[in-house]
Amino acid sequence: MIDSPRKALIIADVQNDFCPGGALGVPRGDEIIPRLNELIKEFLNRGDIVIKSRDWHPPDTNHFATYGGTWPVHCVRNTHGAEFHPDLLSDPRIIVVSKGLGDGDNYSAFDRTNLTMLLRNETIGEIWVGGLATDYCVKDTVLDGLKAGFKVVALIDAMRAVDLTPGDGDQAIEAMRQAGAHIC
Asked: Which of 55, 137, 139, 140 is catalytic?
């Protein structure tokens, strides 16, 4: 584990297409925004780091069902669906990490990004993770954060699951707990 008191808040993919009414809307996904906004303010006021990850897909990736993948077209870069939900706080101090830039699923905010290096350069020892969706991007970000040596807090009141199969969200929370994340 990285021994540092500094913390970072990672908000996974709270984008229009993942919120109710979006191309791949997570049920009640927008309900987590007030809690995330409280955390954003708290972290920024302390001088800690806040990171928003986002899917930033090209229009023709094999991540999409039309090209052999699993999911409907969503979060295509430079579209309304790829924008962060308008109610999620914005601040120039917030760092944006884009993922899913090519082919492949890239659920984790660590997948093919510079996130590990960024956190280490900021001497971060602990990351707090919330967002959408519990059973995909949140879970994979939590697990990759643990693998990278960070202490990880998974924010159960600041995430929602897709639950493609009923119970997927609960299984994801248990997988995070079993891997060593603190479920808060």
From this structure: 137
Class of domain 6-183: alpha beta
* Average pLDDT across the chain, whole number: 95
Q: In whole angstroms, give the CA distance from residue 130 to residue 62.
A: 26
Chain segment 91-122, per-residue pLDDT in tens: 999 999 999 998 888 999 999 999 999 999 99
Domain ranges for the chain: 6-183
The Cα 12–Cα 8 span in angstroms is 13
Q: Are 58 and 13 in contact (CB under 8 A)?
A: no
List helix spans (H) across the chain. Answer: 33-46, 115-121, 139-147, 168-179
Give the DSSP H/E element, type plus range, for residue 158.
strand 151-160
Question: Is 60 among the residues known to form the active site?
Answer: no
Q: Which of 7, 52, 99, 151 is catalytic?
A: 99
Q: What is this structure's pTM?
A: 0.96
The residue with tokens 């602990």 is 126
- The verdict on whether 157 is a catalytic residue reads no
Q: Measure the CA–CA gap between 176 and 45, rounded to whole angstroms.
A: 28
Residue tagged 């302390």 (tokens):
46
